[in-house]
């Protein structure tokens, strides 16, 4: 039983490290880490704003696992590029609104740091939305199979 589990572990680790080196993997990993740091800052000052960081960190982790394990090709009934685009776009808008509200309130130092990091998260999520916009991605056009001058 233990022998059958060993070959899958290096494959899983290789998939994780290979995806982590791509641009999308780096963006998702940075989003997870930044949401965790913002969560810590909000929890130290005002726990009322921490739910945004928790939700976005969980969603980024889910998309990281989906893309890492290649589940986006195995689950075709979900449009993954559009889902990821709307996730990042909504996160950028919500982080912008939350950060402006937090910075206007003028709280303690951890609240100010969380607000500034929220503005950085706005830029990160906005860039991720720009990169994952589905119409920007190149489409594959199938080569014609019939001769161009008609049947022979």
From TrEMBL:
The chain crosses the membrane at residues 26-45, 51-73, 85-104, 110-130. It comes from Nomascus leucogenys (Northern white-cheeked gibbon). May play a role in cell differentiation in the intestinal epithelium. GO terms for cellular component: plasma membrane. Residues 19-137 form the MARVEL domain. This is Proteolipid protein 2. The keyword Lipid biosynthesis does not apply. It is a multi-pass membrane protein. Keywords: Membrane, Transmembrane, Transmembrane helix. One of its GO terms (molecular function) is chemokine binding.
């Amino acid at each position: 039983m233990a022998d059958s589990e060993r070959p899958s572990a290096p494959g899983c680790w290789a998939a994780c490290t290979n995806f982590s080196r791509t641009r999308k993997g780096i963006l998702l990993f940075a989003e997870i880490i930044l949401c965790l740091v913002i969560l810590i800052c909000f929890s130290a000052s005002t726990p009322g704003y921490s739910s945004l960081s928790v939700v976005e960190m969980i969603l980024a982790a889910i998309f990281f696992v989906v893309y890492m394990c290649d589940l986006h090709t195995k689950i075709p009934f979900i449009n993954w590029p559009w889902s990821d685009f709307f996730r990042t776009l909504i996160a950028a808008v919500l982080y912008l609104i939350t950060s402006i509200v937090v910075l206007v309130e003028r709280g303690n130092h951890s609240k100010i740091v969380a607000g500034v990091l929220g503005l950085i998260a706005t830029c990160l999520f906005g860039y991720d939305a720009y990169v994952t916009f589905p119409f920007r991605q190149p489409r594959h056009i199938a080569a014609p199979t019939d001769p161009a001058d008609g049947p022979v």
